What we know:
By secondary structure, the protein is α+β, with helices and mostly antiparallel strands. The chain contains four helices and four strands. A hairpin with a 5-residue loop joins strand 3 and strand 4. The longest helix has 12 residues, at 86-97. 4% of the residues are buried. The model has no long low-confidence stretch (mean pLDDT 84).
Amino acid sequence: xxxxxxxxxxxxxxxxxxxxxxxxxxxxxxxxxxxxxxxxxxxxxxxxxxxxxxxxxxxxxxxxxxxxxxxxxxxxxxxxxxxxxxxxxxxxxxxxxx
Length: 98
């Protein structure tokens, strides 16, 4: 998370899971610098087109939004884990903020 913090980047995780589920997940993984939002009504999921076409879950999509609210990067990664995407995200952030 230091790579994001040093660039003054906020990491926000959004899913259709409940607030209670997010609390347990954050505690289990010691997520102190990540904001987790519950989108049980699927408003954000629909806005950013991240709903899975078959399953009642949101897809794992990495979206970089600039300071003006514009989506400047989007990567649909299916169900892969963040660790696999961190270097790609950092490279994109560095490209965008230059």
